[in-house]
Amino acid sequence: MKLLEDRIKKEGQALSETVLKVDSFINHQVDSEFMDALGRDFAEHFKDAGITKVFTIESSGIAPALMTAKHLNVPMVILKKQTSKILNGNVYQTRITSFTKGTSYELTLFADYIQPEDRILLIDDFLANGEAAMGASRIITESGATLAGIGILIEKSFQRGRKRLEEAGHRVYSQARIKRLDAGVIEFLAEDAPVTDVEENE
Ligand code: G4P
């Protein structure tokens, strides 16, 4: 998606071979008009998927997920990150470990906010190793609902997340795909470039 690529070129900062900083419009300060445009693009892309709810994982996915939900005219649900298991109440939980941040949390959803007939679109800001998305998929499957699509703002195509999600049978759309990062270098991959052409790099 040209709009997002252009913004990354203008304001993104490649800090290393693995980390892209986009604090000025996604992770710290949020550009609401820009998020609205990204949400419209996700809604258009998944308009034929019969989506009944948009899910995201707190916190940076919330803004684009809300805008996507607005354009699809469906509710948005935030999967929470809890530090420990909730032992009472009707909840779905699964443990996620972040390689990028070296942290773990219990991804948590109250059962009231998902029904077996739901078709879920998951929206998140970054796709790296796919741990968070795979965890969301486990929760959705456990509830009996369907994960009908995954929309990502920035896919780091040199990490294995996209491949894992597609091998698990998921429909993935990334608005920007990053082929390579290095200090001061950001290279993009075409939207339709095959995933198998991408080097694995954990
Ligand atoms: P994975 O789920 O795909 O395996 O990703 P990973 O664990 O490696 O990354 C987890 C966290 O790190 C996520 O944030 C993700 O957005 C963030 N992240 C990964 N790569 C980058 C990057 O290159 N740049 C930036 N800015 N963030 C990155 P989170 O812990 O969920 O935090 P939040 O911002 O959503 O609160």
Automatic annotation (TrEMBL):
Pathway it works in: Purine metabolism; XMP biosynthesis via salvage pathway; XMP from xanthine: step 1/1
Record-listed E.C. numbers: 2.4.2.22
UniProt cross-references to InterPro entries, sorted A to Z: PRTase-like (IPR029057), PRTase_dom (IPR000836), Pur/Pyrimidine_PRTase (IPR050118), Xanthine_PRibTrfase (IPR010079)
Binding site residues for xanthine: 20, 27, 156
Lineage top rank: taxon: Bacteria
Ranges in coiled-coil conformation: none
One CC-aspect GO term: cytoplasm
Keyword presence, Calcium: no
Family: Belongs to the purine/pyrimidine phosphoribosyltransferase family. Xpt subfamily.
UniProt subunit comment: Homodimer.
NCBIfam families for this protein: PRK09219.1, XPRTase
Name used for this protein in its record: Xanthine phosphoribosyltransferase
UniProt source species: Candidatus Anaerobutyricum stercoris
Gene (UniProt): xpt
